[in-house]
Specification:
Number of helices: 22
CATH topology of one domain: Nucleotidyltransferase, domain 5
Oligomer: single chain
Length: 699
């Protein structure tokens, strides 16, 4: 038996059904016995939506009103009635089982499954298998229109059936016409057999992905704007109703190892991918998620792996993966199993543990753990920030793709890692960012990402004459993309105040821009990752007392590259080539707002003490180029040992370590004499290049 099902939402109708996240307001159905060609009672049920504001198209097509829907039952009650009435009709027809049959896939995949998932109640098993009448019709009548162009009306016209919709209520005509089409397909001339129903996966299946696999680019999308704590199961729930390939969710990490709010999702076929694209700007909680096309190469770059150890670890299917971070370097498998305890047994015991190591075998302090069920994983997550040895351990949900990414990153890490580019503006001397408490600067927030220096000058209007030379500073985020922020240095605090009053919330292109007055000190504070608005100043993450060592003061002010070393730091090495500002060679000398060759672009780098989840626990150091060291030595007239091997690097020091402890540690060894002011006597400019948290560089 078939249950012919038709539905409508409070929003779009037809090919866009479900694309606007509007709720279901109508269900119409009828049971059809394929053997006896008898039908049951036709049922029509209105559904009370949480939002009764109907779109104009819905009002026009359906004829429904908010008043009428206000008296209806909610969706969960309607679905209970559906099951009861279908069972009753089947008994009358002498049947016991049935499969749904709908006009296309949108009602089942794009409306019912997403809405019930958001409202946290389960659909019965019958909604996980259904026949797509359009596909069945095209199989029976190959000369008919393509599946994507079919509608109930075009199928009826192809068969010569009556198409006067005005004779019946909305929904009733559609179901009656679908039943007539089915009977035509069962006639002696066709003898169509319904054999291969569409299926909806009950849950997302995890699994590994090899770089040698071939991934069709027509099956991959990129989801952007995800909450940082989202897991692969959360993403699968967002795409509920669509079939994601096994191991097809890959959460993306940024260069510091933290989730960047993006994920690549691989579906079983291009049809499912196209339906996923219709969920662009649908909501996950209070956030809307952007959905774009992606390529198979991008997916393999994130999710693919080559390590046999990882493949063996991930070979156990349908496991919940937890990442542990901050483990003591001496921690063993027994220590980890003892920390987790008997209430959260690890799958396979020691085989369910994977320690992350550097290429030379040193532990990174990270590990992945497998659990056989959600209950055990939840018990493990309750141990977040409990103590193992003398360290607290962080635990987070993880994915198979994240395991691959983390292992790939650490295994490709050089033995002496380098720090990602810090805040090093490309500024020819002597132009530096002013510091101090004088509020002679303004901050522009909410700039269009395509905005350039010329757009800012046009936005400032007459106030451009009050900008200091080289006083326009664009800001990039941690990924090297425009952050929407810029800082302007004005000639006086009064000028900055006037600009903030005049230009606040003024439009630039299609966006309004907020303008705040600030000081040079506050400007540097924001460049370090703090926040500044009309409510005051909030410190950057690396300044928090619980995260920052007492003596840590790297990059307190903007670093300026020495002239001799500037050649070693080409702009293309520091900044993405796509954001190279346009030169303005023809600008007159009296109107010089920024260097002729490039605008001042700053990387808002705050990853020394990254917040969870999935960020590395250690950060390397920035190896100073020989030119920088030599330049600094020349500037300060301090001799630097020329021979190679004179520098040693100390890593993993306690945060409160001072010079006295380090000199005591090297007792008995000869070090550079008369050098007790930082262990390397360099200028402040060169020191800012070399300095890094938790480490000392010694001669």
């Amino acid at each position: 038996s078939l249950v012919v099902l038709f539905g409508a939402t409070a929003g779009a109708y037809g090919a866009k059904l479900g694309s606007d996240e509007r709720e279901l307001i109508l269900l119409v159905w009828q049971v059809v016995d394929l053997h006896s060609k008898k039908v049951g009672t036709l049922h029509k049920s209105l559904v009370k939506a949480d939002n009764l504001d109907l779109s104009d198209q819905c009002r026009e097509v359906s004829g429904l009103t908010p008043e009428g829907l206000g008296k209806a039952e909610p969706l969960d009650r309607v679905l209970q009635q559906f099951s009861q009435l279908v069972s009753s009709d089947l008994k009358v027809l002498g049947r016991s089982s049935y499969t749904l049959c709908s006009d296309g896939q949108l009602l089942i995949r794009q409306v019912l499954h997403p809405e019930t998932s958001k409202k946290n109640f389960l659909l019965s098993d019958c909604f996980y298998s259904f026949y797509d009448l359009r596909k069945e019709f095209h199989t029976c009548y190959p000369s008919s229109a393509a599946v994507k162009d079919q509608t109930i009306k075009t199928m009826a016209e192809y068969l010569g059936l009556g198409t006067d919709e005005a004779e019946e209520d909305f929904g009733v005509w559609q179901v009656k016409t679908m039943v007539a089409i089915i009977f035509s397909m069962l006639s002696e001339g066709c003898n169509h057999v319904f054999t291969e129903p569409e299926t909806v996966k009950y849950k997302y299946e995890t699994g590994p992905c090899s770089k040698s696999e071939t991934v069709d680019s027509e099956t991959v999308i990129r989801a952007r704007g995800l909450p940082w704590q989202s897991s692969d199961q959360d993403i699968a729930r967002f795409f509920k109703g669509l079939n994601i390939a096994k191991g097809g969710v890959a959460l993306c990490l940024n260069s510091q190892g933290r989730r960047n709010g993006e994920a690549l999702v691989r579906f079983v076929n291009s049809e499912q991918r196209d339906l996923a694209l219709e969920r662009h700007k649908h909501h996950m909680g209070s956030r809307y998620i952007e959905v774009y096309k992606a390529t198979g190469e991008e997916f393999l770059k994130i999710a693919g792996g080559t390590s046999n150890e990882v493949a063996q670890f991930l070979s156990k299917e349908n496991q919940v993966i937890i990442r542990m971070r901050g483990l003591p370097f001496t921690a063993t498998q027994e220590d980890v199993l003892g920390f987790l305890g008997p209430e959260c047994p690890v799958t396979g015991g020691k085989e369910g543990l994977l320690f992350v190591k550097y290429p030379d075998g040193r532990p990174t302090g990270d590990a992945f753990v497998l659990f056989s069920c959600e209950e055990y994983a939840q018990n493990a997550l309750k141990k977040h920030k409990e103590i193992l040895g003398k360290r607290y351990i962080e635990l987070f949900r993880s994915t198979a793709a994240e395991v691959q990414q983390v292992l790939n990153r650490y295994m490709s890490t050089p033995l002496i890692p380098t720090l990602p580019t810090p805040i090093i503006p490309v500024i020819p001397p002597p132009y530096t960012i002013a510091t101090g408490s004088i509020r002679d600067c303004v901050r522009l927030r909410g700039l269009p990402y395509t905005a350039g220096i010329d757009d800012i000058l046009e936005f400032m209007g007459d106030a451009t004459g009050d900008i200091k030379p080289h006083g326009v500073h664009m800001v990039l985020n941690q990924q090297g993309r425009p952050s929407g922020d810029a800082f302007i240095q004005m000639k006086s605090a009064d000028k900055a105040f006037m600009v903030a009053q005049k230009c606040h919330k003024k439009m630039m292109k299609d966006r309004y821009v907020e303008v705040f007055q600030c000081s040079g000190e506050e400007m540097n504070f924001v460049l370090m990752g703090g926040t500044l608005n009309r409510s005051g100043l909030s410190p950057p993450p690396c300044k928090l007392p619980c995260l920052s060592p007492p003596a840590y003061a790297a990059f307190q002010t903007a670093a300026v590259i020495p002239a001799e070393a500037a050649a070693l730091y080409q702009p293309q090495a520091l900044l993405p080539t796509t954001r190279t500002p346009q030169a303005s060679a023809a600008a007159p000398p009296t109107v010089t707002y920024y260097p002729a060759q490039a605008a001042q672009l700053y990387m808002n780098y705050t990853a020394y003490y990254p917040s969870p989840p999935v960020s590395p626990t250690t950060v390397g150091y920035l190896a100073a180029p020989p030119g920088a060291v030599a330049a600094a030595a020349t500037a300060t007239h301090t001799p630097i040992l020329p021979q190679p091997g004179a520098l040693v690097r100390m890593q993993g020091l306690p945060y409160n370590t001072g010079m006295k402890e380090i000199l005591s540690f090297f007792q008995g060894y000869q070090y550079a004499p008369d050098d007790y002011n930082g262990l390397i006597q360099l200028s402040d400019q060169a020191r800012s290049v070399l300095q890094a948290p938790k480490e000392w560089v010694c001669l």
